[in-house]
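Fold these two proteins, one after the other.
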Amino acid sequence: MCGRFALYSTYPKLSESLRLPLEAGEVTPRYNVPPGTFISAVRRADDEAPLVMDELWWGYKPHWAGEKAPQPINATVEKVATSNYFKGAFAHHRCLVPADGWYEWLPVDGKKQPHFLCREDREPLWLAGIWAERADGTPGCAIITEPARGSAKEIHSRMPLALDAESLEPWLDPDLTDRETIRNVVHHLDAELITHWPVSTRVNRPGNDEDAALLNPA
């Protein structure tokens, strides 16, 4: 799954990494981003709108969903295109969530040791997501997950779906709505680029969000 991540790259670095025209914006460094908060994401508000770095609520619940409907933070790659809850957003409301890395917890001697996972070259990751307008009119999103690959399998059975550079533009293309077409042109990042290390258990507290030392090896 993906339940906590860090984003500290500057807006200019993210814009350069995306390699697509992006409306001006800014990003506040966060080193321990929890669900149930607003997070930065790249999206189009509608098919004709320009790409913007927007603030989306991390919790997906479409405005048409009932009061007791779930508010997932993740959607699995296996079901996101076919589930009635997600498939409309997959076809028409895809987004990218920038991250410098994410956290997972590895059971060790009866305890859970947090690890930070990121690219070996420390370049930003672009996580595939979907969004929908919530009942209050704000956009809410879920990050798509896939079975863990490469060294990420050492820590957890699943990982966020990080896309390679050539997949970013088609993922955000509003004209691509067919599931098979999207699967043929969108690819995940090479797993060999991912590394990880143990970090302080201080990351267990979501309130610790502004401390860069959280990323230091434990």
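Now the second one:
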Amino acid sequence: MEWLLDGLLVLALVVTAVAALWSRNLFRAVVVFIAFGVLMAVAWVRLQAPDIALAEAAIGAGLTGVLLLDAVSHLASKRPRVQKQEGGSR
């Protein structure tokens, strides 16, 4: 039964890693990256390394995730807005 849990954990890690890399939406990529960090912390717990799991959860998912979300919000506010032109070309 433990091998099934470990297999699902590995599959979830691979899926979230691929989803974070291939996502075209930056916000979605950061959220998936945070989910990857949480899953990685669970993997470290399964490997009986609680100190590394705590560091991964705090730094990998927590601090890095917050910093990346802040960076995405700054990018979104700096992006120029495309205005629609009325009528034909001038």
